[in-house]
User: Fold this.
Amino acid sequence: MSNLDSMQRFTFDNTDVRGELVGLHKSLSDVLSKHEYPEALKIELGKLMAASALMSATLKYEGRLCLQVRLPGDVTLIQAETTNTGDIRAIARYDESKKIEEVELIGGQLVITLEPAVGKPYQGVVPLDSNQLNESLEYYFSQSEQLGSRFWLECDGTVASGFMLQQLPSSAENDVDAWDRLSHLASTLKREELLTLDNPTILHRLYHEEEVRLYDLEPLRFACTCSKERIGNAIQQVGFEELMDVIAEQGKVSVDCQFCLQHYSFNKEQVTNLFPEKKLH
Assistant:
């Protein structure tokens, strides 16, 4: 697939349907290089990364979209985030003492969080009633946005790819049968085609009789949004007294970002500055 580490929008003339194609390679490799994940978990993490990139295309403001798969079993969390500028990061948590041969999604929850740079975040929760992540994403859009949406997600542990179709509010003058026709054609897309073919070839293979408009590629890259300020805000939740106990024992509070493994440390003065009410006047 030549369109790796990028996202590309496409539309169909005289219809109320749009789509997105995503391919991940180096960005996926960068994420997987931070942790040792079982092969089955790598695949699910790659799919979720592709899904978060596809859904980030709907962001109309500066911010990020976060997808969390919360599970009750040996794998407890799979999380992927994409910003409106194409920065992507992801992580998974699992019981490293167990052999993970497959990831069971049924019984878990999919949590979708939209975090604007300015304003309040929005969160939606969807039950995972099958082992197909795309079905829960489609249900989310049908319930929250009242928009028909279809997702195809694939990952082989090295490359992750995603294909999305979305129905827009209809116009009377446009092709009213387009959604059913275009969705049916997309359902013929094979796994190996999505993982290996470039975007123009995929669209020609599916829609050679349609008038397809393909837009510019938008790059995607692994980049972590952690910072000392954000880590400081996070450790505030531990509490002042508890942090002081750590400093008394270890001389500092040490924290590693779980996404990128960046190390942060806070001395006594820096921790005190996190709690203005504790300063002596």
